[in-house]
Amino acid sequence: MSRLYVARNPRVAARSLDGEMMIMSGRDSTLFTLNKTATILWQAADGATPLDQIVERKICPEFDVEPAVALQDAESLARELAHHEILQVSEEPIAQNPSPGAAR
Amino acid sequence: MPELTQACTQEIVGRLSLVIEVGGTPIRVNTTDPEFFSVVQDRYRGFLSDSERTEIDFEIELVEPGFGDPQAEVRVRQRQGQWSFERGDFRAEWEPAKRTGRIRQVAKPYSLDSVLRIVHTLVLASKSGFLLHAASAIRNGKAFLFAGVSGAGKTTISSFAPADATLLSDEISYAMRQGAGYSAFGTPFTGELDILGENVSAPIAALYLLAKGTKNRIDAISPGEAVRSLLANILFFAEDSELVHSTFDSAFDFVSRIPVSRLTFVPDARVWELIG
Questions:
Q1: What is the pTM of this model?
Q2: Which of A102, B90, B111, B168 lies most in the core, judged by the most C-beta atoms within 10 Å?
């Protein structure tokens, strides 16, 4: 099974406020508020770290969940965020410029 | 004010011209149609300016109704430094580098009003400001904004404003960063009351999110809810990533500087006992 890589879409605006990650689509200005899992995924999505490593290192320690189940859920979530053009998903590492929202 | 009107308008070989200044941004509009000129002059009374240097110089060409799809949604796009706006009743271009633009529209002031609203959202985005679906008023030297969608109570609260309050708008409020805070400016963009705001400004003391209820009360809300509600009420038309970023940042900045709370109110004048 091939690995997935995820990267933040640099066209979105993103900020964290009191633990809430808010993201606004650069395409149609739709506002999204991410839940805790999606926030972890967003913050770790550097384009270079495979999704299974993100799940193992960042998500599993936060939740009482089997790694295989967590990876399956994370893949679904990543594809949903990609559908909204919040994340980019690829089977290859994704070269990425620094996102305006990534550092906030 | 005939003297002011005369000072603010010019006629140059059949070309009629006036400057409409909202929030300190003077925009000149030119037309060759005396009847339309007269309507515009009356529509924006109180916001006419004698500024020589204008932010934009728009040439208006009036066209017959039906030149575009009447059901078309507004579209605002930027390509190669030129903005284009279009809806069923107007098409406009604006080239910021040249400070010039062109509007083709039906002979209705509402079409020009829509173009001006769009232009101000774009101008404000670069000045850490925004237009907001909100009524606003000045009381005791401070501005108060009352935000909400249609039916939330903007018109109601405006109609009950006491005599010592100066109405800035009953529908679309103009907020811009100034110094360490934000200021609200009067606008000619009216709602159901169809009363122009006063062309004055004041530092914003509070933003209230309107809700109708059985008693008057002010409740604190979380910063996250404040940002979400603010963003939901900001006028935003452009399909442009850079503007999305600047408007998004302005909303967070605003919430970090201005108290935002929920104002639940009974629709009568007593709500103003809580304001100011």
A1: 0.88
A2: B168
Q: Looking at the structure, do residues B99 and B145 belong to the same domain, yes or no?
A: no
Which amino acid, one-letter code, is at A72? Answer: Q
- Residue B169: closest CA among B189, B149, B153: B189
Among B95, B125, B155, give the residue marking a domain's end: B125
Per the DSSP assignment, residues forming a β-bridge with B132 are: B173, B234
Question: The tokens of B264 are what?
Answer: 């639940």
Are residues B195 and B210 both part of a single domain? yes
Domain span at residue B163? 129-274
The ipTM, to two decimals, is: 0.80
Backbone angles phi, psi at B116, to 5 degrees: -65, -40
- Dihedral angle at the C-alpha atoms of A74, A75, A81, A83, nearest 10 degrees? -160
**Residue B36 DSSP label:** H
Low-confidence ranges of chain B (pLDDT < 50): 1-2
